[in-house]
Amino acid sequence: MMGYVLRRLISLGLSLAVASVLIFSVIAMIPGDPASFMLGTGAQPDTLAALREQLGLNLPFAQRYLSWIGGILRGDFGQSFTYKTPIAGMIATRMQVSLPLAVLALVLSTLLAFPIGMIAARWRGRGTDRAVMGVTQIGIALPNFWFAMLLVLVFAVKLRLLPAGGFPGWSDPLAALKALTLPAIALALPQAAILARVLRSSLIETLDQDYIRTARAKGLSRGQTLRRHALRNALIPVLTILGMQFSFLLAGAIIIENVFHLPGLGRLIFQAITQRDLIVVQSSVLVMVAAVIIVTFIVDLGYALVDPRLRR
To answer: Coil, strand or helix: which one is 275?
Structure first.
């Protein structure tokens, strides 16, 4: 097991290194001059040159990359061109919204998907299975931003049970959880529908194996066989989808964050792009990519725990 973990850690480090080079290269190739954008079209040439010198835009590509990645390894993400504040603090503040939102949405989608997928697999080909699959198809087809606005109309405007937007901070945990509930539900619904369909398909494939028929022949009921034997062996594709979903929920919630006016990391990247604050963009994207790679590493460990054969 230790050898497997070591190999995955080496792969994780190489992936992060390659990702950092790609992110920095793509940002560096974006047309336009950040200094000209910040000062405006009427800026004097000497003022423009001084700002470019201050921002390090005149340095060679390799030197700028090494300076940037060296600062990140020391915990220094640089300073925002627009807000004149340390980027590390900005990212940490926004992650206090995005990370709990992603975790809450993933928990909700898992709690919905597992019983739905197991029910559909247990009664495959029958009316219950067809009804469940029809509902999940609707869940996949519904745009999450439209569903988010529908939730606001019902639970915030009509019933006044939950806030329509904004985030009060974690000084009041109950108010913070209330503020994240509707966005988490809006994100969790389509993810739960996808996960339920994947779980159903994986369980149906597992239920056709010989050891399942042997378990049934020993007297186990359909439900006992499903829970005790089929579920664990059907988890490999499910873990893959869970890892992908968490990455999407962390990095791809920008539309939901804008609908609910949440100060999350996705919204920070959107604002930095519109303001051409490129150092904020590349540092924030690197944090997101690192989070995705780390989640993939955790999923790989989950594979090894579920199926020991994969350790080899």
So the answer is: coil
Q: How far apart are CA 307 and CA 235, in angstroms?
A: 9
**pTM to 2 decimal places:** 0.81
Domain ranges in the chain are 99-262+292-311
Tokens standing for residue 43:
């800026």
Q: What is the pLDDT along the chain (312 residues), one digit of tens a residue?
A: 677 778 878 888 898 899 899 988 888 777 666 667 666 666 677 777 777 777 677 778 888 888 888 888 888 888 887 788 888 899 899 889 988 998 999 999 999 998 888 888 888 878 888 888 888 888 888 888 888 888 999 998 988 888 888 888 898 899 999 999 999 999 888 889 988 888 888 888 877 777 777 777 777 776 677 766 677 777 777 877 888 788 778 766 778 888 888 888 888 888 888 877 888 888 888 888 888 888 888 877 777 776 666 556
CATH architecture of 99-262+292-311: Orthogonal Bundle (1.10)
What is the rounded CA–CA span in Å between residue 79 and residue 81?
6
